[in-house]
Amino acid sequence: MVTFEIGKFTASPYSPYIIAEVGVNHEGSLETAKLLIKQAKDAGAHAVKFQSYKAEKIASKYSPAYWDLTKEPTKSQYELFKKLDSFGEQEYEILADYCRNIGIDFMSTPFDLDAVEYLTPLVPAFKIASADITNTPLLRAVSKTGKPIIVSTGASTLAEIEFALQTCRQAGAKNIALLHCVLNYPTPLEQAQLSNIQMLKRVFPETAVGYSDHVIPDETISALEAATLFGALILEKHFTHDKKLQGNDHYHAMDATDLTRFVDKLATYRDLIGSESQHLENQTAARQHARRSVVANRDIKQGEVLTEDNLTAKRPGHGISPIHWDEVIGKQVRQDIKNDTLISWDMLIG
Fold first, then answer.
1. Contact between residue 49 and residue 107 where contact means Cβ atoms under 8 Å apart
2. Are 10 and 3 in contact, with CB atoms under 8 Å apart?
3. What is the DSSP letter of 133?
4. Quick one: fold of 282-349?
5. Is the CB of residue 211 less than 8 Å from the CB of residue 197?
6. CATH 3.90.1210.10 spans which residues of the chain?
7. Is the sign of the CA dihedral 15, 40, 186, 209 positive or negative?
8. Which of 32, 152, 207, 317 has its CA 20 to 30 A from that of 243?
9. For residues 43 and 187, what is the distance between their CA atoms, to the nearest angstrom?
């Protein structure tokens, strides 16, 4: 069974590693960032994840927007990143310490090589954004750290995914996971394509597979529920303290209430699914009282031979099980047996 280890946590089917992606929803405020971290921790996330970038290192000044302009009106990627890139090494060290103190993993996606360098001592694993799945220098840099790597696959071909895996492995990475992802913000239900989780598992059977979600959450975040049932080992979704705020990632994010409901539902699924064992001890009463026994179908005289005509099978299962029906047929009885009596072995001759 494929698993994925991050720090002290081992992600496995129905026990996924949950990443609450704060991203840049802190909007430059350490106070807001800490609030989001605490809310994510209390709601059941295993990690919070930020985004480490500087506008001039990630986008040209002429890079166009590709998101819903009715939700985020900024028309240039550079302009948007410039509004949200105020955090640097010092801020992330503060937030990593805060995460450590309250007991939740700190993560941040690096978008340049400088970010890889200063994040390395702070994070238990590296997350690569979908847009950087073909970024050879960045893939090599995170791989050389020896840390687990999580790669989102939004807008990628299978050949590009294979390229990323090979590049990371050749640079020294050993623990790599893939996240199915759709790069539409938000992602309409009919475009979520969660079946791709199973496809990635088939194509890359030795690689852990998870899901990064951009569908607007309903009451129990059905997209994450379905992904869990498809076997996703890692679940990532944008996280906010207020879904009504204007901004790039607030409107399709989950909040603490959404996450709490999902974590509760996840616990219910784990109880329902259980382990792959028969648990017969929980069904002892049913086995004893709802199963059937071989029973006299009429009065039977001593020395009479048992036949299909003078026997039947009835509850409870306290006598000879009808699984032994063929062994009982043809035997003589050593005593009179009244109608509707359960047959036992000591009533039989031979």
1. yes
2. yes
3. T
4. Type Iii Antifreeze Protein Isoform Hplc 12 (3.90.1210)
5. yes
6. 282-349
7. negative
8. 152
9. 24
Q: What gap in Å lies between CA 41 and CA 19, rounded to an integer?
A: 10
- 143 burial type by CB count under 10 A (0-12 exposed, 13-18 middle, 19+ buried): buried
CATH 3.20.20.70 intervals, the chain: 4-273
Could you report the per-residue pLDDT of 259-284, keeping only the tens digit for each? 999 999 999 999 888 877 767 888 89
* pLDDT tens-digit readout, 286-299: 989 999 999 999 99
Q: Which helix (H) or strand (E) holds 13?
A: none
For residue 42, what pLDDT band results from cuts at 50, 70 and 90? Answer: very high
Tokens encoding 269: 């699924």
Spell out the alpha helix ranges (H) of 131-203: 136-143, 158-170, 195-203
pTM of the model: 0.86
Long-range contacts of residues 66-69, Cβ cutoff 8 Å, at least 24 apart: 67/185, 67/248, 68/185, 68/186, 68/251
Nearest to 291 by CA among 334, 320, 269, 264: 320
pLDDT value at residue 265: 95
The residues with which 106 forms a beta bridge, in sequence order, are 48
Residue whose entry in the numeric block shows the structure tokens 């946590």: 9
Token digits for 46? 């295993």
DSSP reduced 3-state for 121: coil
Closest CA to 217 of 184, 259, 264: 259
Question: Is the Cα torsion angle 7, 5, 44, 127 positive or negative in sign?
Answer: positive
Three-class secondary structure of residue 80 per DSSP: helix
The reported pLDDT for the residue numbered 255 is 97
Helix axis angle for 222-229 and 256-273, nearest 10°, is: 30
DSSP output for 284-334: HHHHHHTS-EEEESS-B-TTPBP-TTTEEEES-SSS--GGGHHHHTTPEES
Amino acid, single-letter form, for residue 117 = E
- Per-residue pLDDT tens over the stretch 47-92: 999 999 999 999 999 899 887 788 788 889 899 889 889 999 999 9
| Fold entry, domain 4-273 | TIM Barrel (3.20.20)
